[in-house]
Amino acid sequence: MNSLYTAALGRRPKFAEFETDRATLKQAKDDARNAFLLAFVQRPEFKKRFAETMKPAEFVDAVLLSLTQNANVDLGSLGTELLDLTDDPNGRVAVLTKVIAHQPLLDAQYNQSLILSHYFAYLRRDPDDSGFATWLNTIKNKPLRDADIARSVTCGFLNSAEYQNRFGMLTTHDPRECN
After folding, report:
1. Residue 15: how many CB atoms within 10 A of its CB?
2. How far is Cα 31 from Cα 123, in angstroms, rounded to an integer?
3. CB 166 within 8 A of CB 159
4. How far is 22 from 15, CA to CA, in rounded Å?
5. Count of beta carbons in the 10 Å neighbourhood of residue 5
6. 179 FRET partner, CA 20 to 30 A, in 9, 33, 71, 78?
7. CA pair distance 77, 137, nearest whole angstrom
8. pLDDT tens across 69-78, in order?
């Protein structure tokens, strides 16, 4: 979901959006992802960013520019392929589907998505900028998808005073125990 928000809106999702989107996807049955994306491109924020009057090439260029600026990912080599997808009646959905599933974007967004999912799952809130940056800085030079790193991040969130206090527990553990 982080890649979708980055590509389409130039930002990461907020906790409330994540909860709503997750509930929508959970309730949907057949072709849930496509239905979700069809609804996503109808959102006012998306329409404001990508006016319906944009020509297909302008839309593709704007999405690619968003990825370059907000995710530091250059998918310009997909330009022609993405432009061909706009011939479909649901071309914008097809473009977003292709882009958010592209491995370079998934790799570029992996650390942010990992940390964001921990904020949402354990702390049940939007990340504060300084805490988010600290976590990203902690794992930025580590290998992607490393199980030990994921365990360490999870341990840090579970042992945080904020998480322990959510359940009225005594704060008996400290994130420093995780390393």
Report:
1. 15
2. 31
3. no
4. 10
5. 22
6. 71
7. 30
8. 999 999 989 9
Tokens for 58, please give them.
């302008």
Model confidence, pTM: 0.88
Q: Which of 126, 128, 106 lies closest to 117, judged by CA?
A: 126
- Are 60 and 83 in contact by the 8 Å Cβ rule? The answer is yes
Q: How far is CA 159 from CA 29, 117, 140, 171, in A?
A: 36, 16, 21, 8
Token match 């990825």: residue? 67
Positive or negative, the CA dihedral 58, 110, 39, 46 is negative
**Residue with structure tokens 């496509």?**
34
In tens, the pLDDT along 123-176 reads 999 999 999 999 999 999 999 999 999 999 999 998 888 988 887 666 676 667
Q: If you search the block for the tokens 């302008």, which residue do you land on? A: 58
Half-sphere exposure of 83 (CA within 13 A, CB side): 10
Closest CA to 120 of 6, 26, 21: 21
- How many Cβ atoms sit within 10 Å of the Cβ of residue 31? 10
Name residue 101's amino acid. A
